[in-house]
């Protein structure tokens, strides 16, 4: 077996590459953007709050003064916002990758719906990213790029089959979160199968960050500012937890490593923490029936059929 020489602190030269990261204003999205920009990539930072996005952009520039950045307003819970952002992003230069990172980690106690009348967690974590990936498929195909969906180790602990994906009955915050991650992971694998079948040169991968928490993450004004109590609580979990900066290592490797392949699942080497490595996805996320059902549901809920034929033509330009 060949020795793994990947060093997440010294990425390959990414000058000339362009990546879009959802949820760039904090957490994993910010640190993924920071790592990509530090390697020379042009990064489209996105977020739904203009002030927080501006603060994150300024924070990144303090870390990497010559970073090549774009800012784009994007709310993955709002299909209109997705269409508008995608139209803007498509109108610029090529796109080498999309990191589908934004999401709700701590769902509301009571079920809430969006302006599009979808359950908030499923809309934000799943429907929005399904629609965005479809909208961005032609520029990704033109660049022979890839998309990375954000998974979670929770899907191996609670293998909920999302028969009621928007939890019209029996809503609980935890079930809403885990079901959204089951759906996103299954969609990531299903996307790769369909892209291969349609001969579209875009790879789809799934990556999970392990147990990455704010109190184990360095403080950055405007991005990560945990109070002393949170630092204390999170540091008690040091044996099983890691920083969000290290959690982003996995996402970035899945996005840029030339050796990474479509259909793969990536995670920390020790499950909850560690260096980025190929991992094993839970059984429910690899179920073909679950994947087909989620794809059908998302296609009809968002009214965004993926433009495979248009993407095939884009690759020949």
TrEMBL record:
It is an enzyme of class 1 (oxidoreductase). SUPFAM superfamilies: NAD(P)-binding Rossmann-fold domains (SSF51735). InterPro entries: Ergosterol_Biosynth_ERG27, NAD(P)-bd_dom_sf, SDR_fam. Its EC number is 1.1.1.270. Pathway: Steroid biosynthesis; zymosterol biosynthesis; zymosterol from lanosterol: step 5/6. GO terms for molecular function: 3-beta-hydroxysteroid 3-dehydrogenase (NADP+) activity. It holds the Pfam family adh_short. PANTHER family: DEHYDROGENASE. This is 3beta-hydroxysteroid 3-dehydrogenase. It comes from Microbacterium invictum.
């Amino acid at each position: 077996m060949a020795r793994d020489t990947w060093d997440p602190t010294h990425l390959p030269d990414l000058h000339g590459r362009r990546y879009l990261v959802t949820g760039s204003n904090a957490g994993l999205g910010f640190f993924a953007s920071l790592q990509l920009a530090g390697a020379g990539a042009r990064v489209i930072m996105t977020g739904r709050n203009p002030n927080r996005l501006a603060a994150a952009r300024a924070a990144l520039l303090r870390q990497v003064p010559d970073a090549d950045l774009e800012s784009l307003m994007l709310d993955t819970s709002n299909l209109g916002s997705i269409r508008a952002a995608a139209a803007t992003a498509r109108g610029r230069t090529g796109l080498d990758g999309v990191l589908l990172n934004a999401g709700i980690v701590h769902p509301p106690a009571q079920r809430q719906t969006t302006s599009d009348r979808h359950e908030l967690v499923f809309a934000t974590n799943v429907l929005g990213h399904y629609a965005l990936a479809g909208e961005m498929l032609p520029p990704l195909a033109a660049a022979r790029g890839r998309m990375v969906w954000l998974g979670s180790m929770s899907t191996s602990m609670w293998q909920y089959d999302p028969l009621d994906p928007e939890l019209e009955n029996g809503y609980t915050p935890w079930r809403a979160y885990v079901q959204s991650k089951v759906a996103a992971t299954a969609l990531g694998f299903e996307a790769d199968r369909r892209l291969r079948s349609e001969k579209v040169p875009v790879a789809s991968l799934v990556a999970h960050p392990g147990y990455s928490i704010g109190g184990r993450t360095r403080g950055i004004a405007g991005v990560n500012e945990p109070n002393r109590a949170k630092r204390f609580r999170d540091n008690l979990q040091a044996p099983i937890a890691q920083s969000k900066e290290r959690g982003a290592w996995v996402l970035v490797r899945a996005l840029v490593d030339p050796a990474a392949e479509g259909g793969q699942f990536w995670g920390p080497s020790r499950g909850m923490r560690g260096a980025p490595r190929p991992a094993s996805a839970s059984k429910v996320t690899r179920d073909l029936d679950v994947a087909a059902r989620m794809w059908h549901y998302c296609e009809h809920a968002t009214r965004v059929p993926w433009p495979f034929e248009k993407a095939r033509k884009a690759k020949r330009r």
